[in-house]
Amino acid sequence: MYKLSGKNSIILLLCLRALYSMNWYNVSPMLFNITSTYGVSSALSGLILSAFLIGTGLFQIPSGLVASKIGSKNTALTGMAIMSVAATTSFISPDFTVFLVTRFVVGLGSAFFFSSGIAVLNDIDERNVSRNIAAFNTAFSVGGGFGVVGFAYFLQYTSWQNLLAAGGVVTLILTVVSFILIPDLSSKSAKRNEFGKNVYRRLTSRPLLLLSMSLAGYWGLNFTFEEYLQPFAQNLGFSGPVSGFIGSLSLFAGLLGMVLFAYFSSKRASVILPSLVIFISAVLALQFFGLSYYLFLTAVLGGSISVIIFSLEYSYVVKLETEKQFVALGISIMNALQIATGSVITFLFGYLFSVNADLSWIILGIIALIFLPLGVSVMKQRS
């Protein structure tokens, strides 16, 4: 059967990555429409985001284990199939509780795609994996940006149920095409007695754990920044449409990050990663002064720098791994730690934001810096 070339397979994976992000962020402009439909308080809208995050966080390590056994391609595309079907079934969710379950399953599916998707990139083109990971993260930014802006626009003409279902159907179609056309280059499973030892070795890998935790504060900072940028813009007096533009700007700025990545990837990670985290923490902290139009600058800087930082750290994990079979597991362990820690940070920020929206940004930046020293020594040893 005909299979795509390596280059075309990567392009198809990037399209899937964009749809993955779209199915994540497209609920953002619909949150209050959804709560209104089910007759629940708008204060419960945060549960919609939390349900997704819990699903994707809980199944990070299980997804890595599955990928180590059945291969990265099969795991990644199975995850996309689960994600798309769950997004589609939100169309028929009879109540708010069932809808939250569908969002949990969407998050579950996303967990199986992300780390395995990076492993597939490594299987296809190991030489240029850092560049391809940067493109992978940029596709996430573009897809998320379209999820916010595009679905907000189409919501004027149809129901949120129709939009979520349409996004799920499009994703499922491309997933099926990918199953057929992308070649499976995954490494074969290790023997059972060796498999357990290999898994344990990675779960207890000091370099991997320290690097993951050192950037967990930044993960929380970045996720919180993206989620609260739009309401913070409204808090500063911008209109709804302008606030929405600012919120999506941080995602589309990932394209700039892709351009800049070539420069930063040629430098020592032990210098670049801490420097960028310190820089963006300081930039966000300056929002304490309430300079409204400064928010456009933070949106561009925050979005572009996130692509650089995440691409560098995932590339680091790929290069740290000596067996391609376990690339997805290493990344899934990193994701699990960062999502768990970052979720707590986001929850804390939500409380602080309600008390003092300006001061909360300074505290968020400080938290990101507290975690940073954990991995600096590891990065120096491995540079």
From TrEMBL:
It comes from the Archaea. Pfam families: MFS_1. InterPro entries: MFS, MFS_dom, MFS_Efflux_Transporters, MFS_trans_sf. One of its GO terms (cellular component) is plasma membrane. It is a multi-pass membrane protein. Transmembrane segments: none annotated. Its main location: membrane. It is found in: Cell membrane. Residues 9-383 form the Major facilitator superfamily (MFS) profile domain. Keywords: Cell membrane, Membrane, Transmembrane, Transmembrane helix. GO terms for molecular function: transmembrane transporter activity. PROSITE patterns: MFS. PANTHER family: CHLORAMPHENICOL EFFLUX PUMP RV0191, PURINE EFFLUX PUMP PBUE. This is Major facilitator superfamily permease. It comes from Cuniculiplasma divulgatum.
